[in-house]
Amino acid sequence: MNIVFTIFDKILFKNKTIVKKRILVTGGTGYIGSHTVVELQNSGFDVIIIDDLSNSKIEVLNGIEKITGIKPVFEQFDLTDIDKCKRFFNKYTDIEAIIHFAAYKAVGESVEKPLKYYRNNLLSLMSLLESMQTFSIRNLVFSSSCTIYGQPEKLPVTEDAPVQEAISPYGNTKQIAEEIIRDTIKTDKNLKTIALRYFNPIGAHPSAHIGELPIGIPNNLIPFVTQTAIGIREQLRVFGNDYNTPDGTAIRDYINVVDLAKAHVIAIERLLNNNNKKAFEYFNLGTGQGVSVLEIINSFEKVTGIKLNYKIVDRRAGDIEKVWADTSFANKELGWQAEKSLDETLLSAWKWEKRLSEE
Ligand code: UD1
Questions:
Q1: Residue 211: CB partners within 8 Å, gap ≥ 6?
Q2: Helices 221-230/342-358 angle, 10° precision
Q3: What's the mean per-residue pLDDT of the chain?
Q4: Residue 221: which of 295, 149, 146 has the closest Cα?
Q5: Does residue 30 surpass a pLDDT of 50?
Q6: pLDDT at 2 over 90
Q7: What is the pLDDT of residues 134-179, one digit of tens each?
Q8: What distance lies between CA 98 and its chain's CA centroid?
Q9: CA-closest residue to ligand 1 atom 29
Q10: How far is residue 338's CA from residue 267's CA, in Å, rounded to a whole number?
């Protein structure tokens, strides 16, 4: 059925023509983007990807096709180039909504090269918003982050928690991006946006056809854990055990990437069906559970039977102590909640790492 859809885009079904709604996913070969493309296709959407492949690989399209049977339309270019952007929208005139993932995301690098981050993350958003106005596209889902809350005073974090001064230029690009969208919406009655504020996305598709593909030494915890377990890295460093937490290590809310991807489909449907209550809405996407670095290590060792070589080192600059989401607003308004267990999620990350090692 899916293959038939890609060939014809329109089919006759019980005497009715079904036209699949077309969604643009920027950054669609990236980690969260690729999992979202799969969930969109599984829900009957026709997906086009724009990615400049600066932090992902073209082979991801094959992984997507293995899961869904559909290879998405793909265009490779840098979204900060407004002319290319407009050429794209002149070519594809039937896009109903956009999910904007494309952005740089390495916190440490953003401190070293702030202009690289401001230029890429903000100009790409502005190109898109201008194009949306020119080509009358009304619906945007924006990839935001819990980093905008900094170290919140109250836990779990609700959407009402104040946005705090950003610790990194990366985090600042997410704050400024939300402001740019908010201001643009004020002047354009047609535009609607849902910003999704992710906590810590981890894991891979259960098929192990797609997953996280860190280029170089991973910054994030889970790829470092799996690369240590498989022998690519010698030792995992645990950044600090003197935090004010039960075991002294920092606490985060680790959310399965497929669960997260499904929330994007719901957000798109909410916009397309005009079920949004405000022109600009934002939701926390997490599990609601805080998990420490040592708990991650223990769970990983338990589910895989592998002993991890790790040592405790000093805190990492810029890390906060603890954060986890209050998910009740997303549960109530989106009818969404994280379903997969931490064990299942860590196993999926491990399965993916093993698959990568076979290549
Ligand atoms: C960071 C960003 C987040 C961003 C995400 C994606 C902040 C505050 N957070 O999340 O916005 O979306 O990266 O890139 O800017 N850890 C170790 N050893 C390691 C790696 C990590 O102990 O080798 C610890 C960290 O100190 C932290 C936890 O593991 O306590 C999670 O770290 P990480 O996966 O890097 O995510 P965040 O820093 O929470």
A1: 31, 203, 204, 205, 348, 349, 352, 353, 355, 356
A2: 50
A3: 95
A4: 295
A5: yes
A6: no
A7: 999 999 999 999 999 999 999 999 999 999 999 899 999 999 999 9
A8: 14
A9: 221
A10: 15
Contact (Cβ atoms closer than 8 angstroms) between residue 38 and residue 205: yes
DSSP type of residue 94: -
Residue 346 clears pLDDT 70, i.e. is over it = yes
The whole-angstrom separation of Cα 267 and Cα 139 is 10
Rg over CA atoms, the chain: 20
Query: What is the sign, positive or negative, of the torsion defined by CA atoms of 124, 129, 134, 136?
Result: positive
Are β-strands 251-252 and 291-292 bridged in parallel, bridged antiparallel, or unpaired? antiparallel
Asked if 163 contacts 174 with a C-beta cutoff of 8 angstroms, the reply is: no
Q: Where are the alpha helices (DSSP H) in the chain?
A: 2-8, 31-42, 60-68, 82-91, 107-112, 114-134, 169-187, 221-230, 257-272, 293-304, 328-334, 342-358
- Check if 170 is active-site: yes
Ligand 1: nearest atom to the Cα of 107: 15
| CB neighbours of residue 71 within 10 Å | 16
Residue of 31, 170, 243, 282 with catalytic role:
170
Question: Distance between CA 340 and CA 108 in Å, rounded?
Answer: 30
* Alpha carbon distance 327, 196 (integer Å): 12
Q: Is the pTM of this model over 0.85?
A: yes
- pLDDT(3) > 70: no
pLDDT in tens, 102-130: 999 999 899 999 999 999 999 999 999 99
69 torsion bin: left (phi>0), alpha (psi -120 to 50), beta (else): left
Atom of ligand 1 nearest to the CA of 296: 29
- Partners of 75 in the beta sheet? 50
Ligand 1 atom 34, closest CA: 220
Q: For the packed helices 342-358 and 293-304, what is the interaxial angle rounded to 10 degrees?
A: 70
Q: Taking 50 as the threshold, does the pLDDT of residue 15 lie above it?
A: yes
Paired strand residues for 49: 25, 74
